[in-house]
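TA notes. Do not distribute before section.
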Amino acid sequence: MSGLGSEDPATAAIRDALPPLLQRLGARSLLDAPCGDAGWIGRLELDCDYTGVDIVPSLVAANNRRVADGELAGRFVVADITRDALPRADLILCRDCLVHLSFQNIVRAVARFRDSGAQYLLVTTFPEWQDNRDCEDGDWRALDMTKAPFNWPAPRALIDERCEEGGGGWRDKSLGLWRLDELPDSARMAADV
């Protein structure tokens, strides 16, 4: 099941911005990692090959049944983004995931993203957030990917999600676009965490 940020109002800005962004980048394939139940993205008209990965086998099986029934397009596979080889795609969408992972597993996930051969990464970031803190896997906190310990460059594009959750406390929630080859290498990031 996808979380609270997957309802129609919470995804409206992304649904509007994602198709033209993919077109502008010339992206012919999209990897949704993790995809959850593909609820909001499954309704988009994407002019590219779509693959969703998730760590939960029952979600992947349900999504594949929906593909077989004609409710969804694309393909779905079971994968752990911190450990498994990931399918090749031009752009990886990683929404609402890294905020639940420890710094160490974020470094692992970014290494898997880079190893996939993808050119771009679109990931949740909070550009007004001051201090990134570590957490146990499964917990949640906001992260600004341009701040320590990640120290990513400024994103090439930012999709403001117009988030209304948390009583306005997460109003800066965005999807930031980075080229994977411009991010610090995994060894340097690991040394910083």
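Switch to the second chain here.
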Amino acid sequence: MQILGIEKVSMVDYPNKIATTVFTGGCNFRCPFCHNSGIVKQEYNVLDIDEFFAYLESRKKLIDAVVVSGGEPTLQSDLEEFIAKIKSLGYLVKLDTNGSNPFMLKRLLESGNVDYIAMDIKNNFEDYGKITGIKDINIENIKKSLDILHKHNVPYELRTTIVNEFHKEENMEKLAKDLAGEHVLYLQKFVDTDTCFEHGLTEVDKMTAVYFAGILSKTIDNVLLRGY
């Protein structure tokens, strides 16, 4: 298991829980607005997994949950075993994923060891390749992951980081059709940082974000802003 970073205490990564967030290395996407470029490009030292579990053992009365994030965690071949060990310590487990590996997602949900899923939806399906940096992206895998989430009784949220250069009214109209019938979608504010893949991208202002939410609310039960 390639752990490249740990946030020991987070109050925001797991809904209504105090969590430890662990970041796995590598990703199969190259989203220009990603703020974890060092994690994705695996530029950091691998952390000792025994030390990580020793920390969890020592914080059982203080931490409620562990969030497995990245990068893209489902690229890790031993992710199932890693999550099972976290679960065995009594923690809730949340998985952050880009939805590109429905086969791993299905196994994790069937194991019963994942309590919450956050799946990134980068853009409307037609424009996924433009925003992920993957020209021939298999969008069917994203759709399969959504279908898997629908079929399992595990709470999940969808989230889209909105960026001026990639998200316009037309994209939101298409996304509303692509995600019709979904329960919850968060529109997340983009912030340009030193760790982004590309610099010079700009945030969507709050008024426009509210307008986008109105478009999406026509087909999605709950569209919420995050970071505004």
